[in-house]
Amino acid sequence: MAVDSALSSPLGPPASEKDAKALQFIEEMTRNADPVQERVLAEILTQNSQTEYLRKFKLNHETDRDTFKSKLPVITYDDIQPEIQRIANGDRSAILSARPISEFLTSSGTSAGERKLMPTIKEELDRRQLLYSLLMPVMNLYVPDLDKGKGLYFLFVKSETRTAGGLLARPVLTSYYKSDHFKTRPYDPYNAYTSPNEAILCPDSFQSMYTQMLCGLQERQQVLRVGAVFASGLLRTIRFLQLNWEQLTQDIETGSLNRKITDPSLRECMAKILKPNPELAEFVRQECSQESWERIITRIWPNTKYLDVIVTGAMAQYIPTLDYYSGGLPLACTMYASSECYFGLNLNPMCKPSEVSYTIMPNMAYFEFLPHEPNSAGFTRDSPPKLVDLVDVEVGKEYELVITTYAGLCRYRVGDILRVTGFHNSAPQFHFVRRKNVLLSIDSDKTDEAELQKAVENASQLLREFNTSVVEYTSYAETKTIPGHYVIYWELLVKDSANSPSEEVLNQCCLQMEESLNSVYRQGRVADNSIGPLEIRVVKNGTFEELMDYAISRGASINQYKVPRCVNFTPIMELLDSRVVSAHFSPALPHWTRDRRR
Questions:
Q1: φ and ψ at residue 408, rounded to 5 degrees
Q2: What is the pLDDT of residue 103?
């Protein structure tokens, strides 16, 4: 019930005194966005003034914005990769941060085929926890009584490794789930989960998924919201249920746990939860054995009010499938974050996915914005870009996000393209447009044009002995299958039809392409099962000429036409698929290990 409080917020009536304070904090930060940004920059520059990185730019203890912008360059990961490598190798001097680097957070973006290593410090956990604490107070403004049940959230830890110098390297969410902030969190009725910590923290993805699903089924009437991090992840859980419902119902019926669950702490935990329930088992069996799985989420979890998943950017391709399985439940995108930094939150989380905008919280880092002009020549050291401060961005314009963090990243280009949709008080709100230069993405993988080109070149080497070459190619992310997979269209020039490449050779081309892709893609294939085997579809000769004719008929210039390296426009997809003469899939898993290349 909303409280009648002196702390009542312009955002709406808070559900509790605790919510009122959180909403008031949001108001204070967004009303004072510019002075908060000024303070944040001064704190970062003061804290890190004696670092090796800042000393070389001779700031002389100045902390004002003008000096900072005039002396420090805008950088990418490659610019500071040598410093990061030194830290990874064990150098504990104050290179980027005056505070000790506590671990590395591995980015889904890659450099030289490996995940980027983002340095972090212990205090950043507090900052991330602060942003998490604001999410439910905002959601409670839109969805009442979320304290009357639980959330069925499928949360997982990913593999972690140690650098040569002994520092942990792992994804940001794995770091958070393994922290005391998460493991020893106090009970909060608004943040109660069906999944026990033991299931979330189990490193085996099958055992973790199985027990989380089992707990969700056990408490089906209690579930008020269903979620995962990404839309693709939630769809994988539906696929998992399709493949495992018979064993799950047997466990529910007998009250005994599947022998495939071998983790001792997990078995001990589940022994306290699992009790024989033949009636529930029969219900789940009847629902899952039906031919149609339309609305399966609301059929099994009838009190679900919304799905909590990221459906912006590349994840938007999964919205129709989510709507099918949920019967069109609202899709809530609550926050905007990355390995480098947590940025902000959605103050209208029940809006349509196409209208999602994130309000940047100015206390999280120092933010600048590089105007995004796709056709510009870029910038050099001699012609540096003019960056815009947080409060000075303009509605309707697109920008690339640039951050300066407490952990030591200075004027770092994140690679996200954002469009300004409005302001909340003096803090801007942004629609996430896309990751810069990303062509293909199924889950957390990001493949750019250069990587795809290299993969095609490496795979086409296998065609040489058959006097065959790849004349032209394009691609798309097939998301109707679960998990989704990359589809590459090849037009081949076969110079000797009597010696054309066999099906086996073309299957090996698929595998060779996968071996050429980055480690995030290969981990998705091998360890996470989040990406299916890559597919090559060979099309008839002349298909790409037809593609050009179609583009020109729609107004493209014949002089400037270039084959798109990724397609998603339905008529083009239909044209390509109508010209397919054979389809080939990767016959094995590509190579991947937890260890980084040295």
A1: 115, 0
A2: 94
Number of residues that this document lists for the chain? 598
Main-chain phi, psi angles of 546, to 5 degrees? -65, -40
- CB count within 10 Å of CB 451 equals 20
Q: Are 418 and 430 in contact, with CB atoms under 8 Å apart?
A: yes
What is the rounded average pLDDT for all residues in the chain?
A: 91
| 426 contacts 33 by C-beta, under 8 angstroms | yes
pLDDT at 568 over 90: no
Looking only at the bridges linking them, the beta strands covering 438-440 and 427-435 are: unpaired
Specify the 3-state DSSP secondary structure of 410: coil
Peptide bond connecting 13 to the previous residue in cis, omega within 30 degrees of 0: no
Radius of gyration of the chain (CA): 25
CB–CB of 507/584 below 8 Å?
yes
Q: Residue 110's beta-bridge partner residues? A: 115
- 3-class SS shares of the chain: helix, strand, coil, % to 5: 40, 20, 40
First to last CA, the chain: 56
Are the beta carbons of 234 and 314 closer than 8 angstroms?
no
Which candidate, 381, 335, 382, places its Cα nearest to that of 359? 335
- Reported as a single tens digit per residue, the pLDDT across 350-400 is 999 989 999 999 999 999 999 987 655 455 555 667 899 999 999 999 999
Instruction: Say if CB 547 and CB 563 are below 8 A apart.
Output: yes
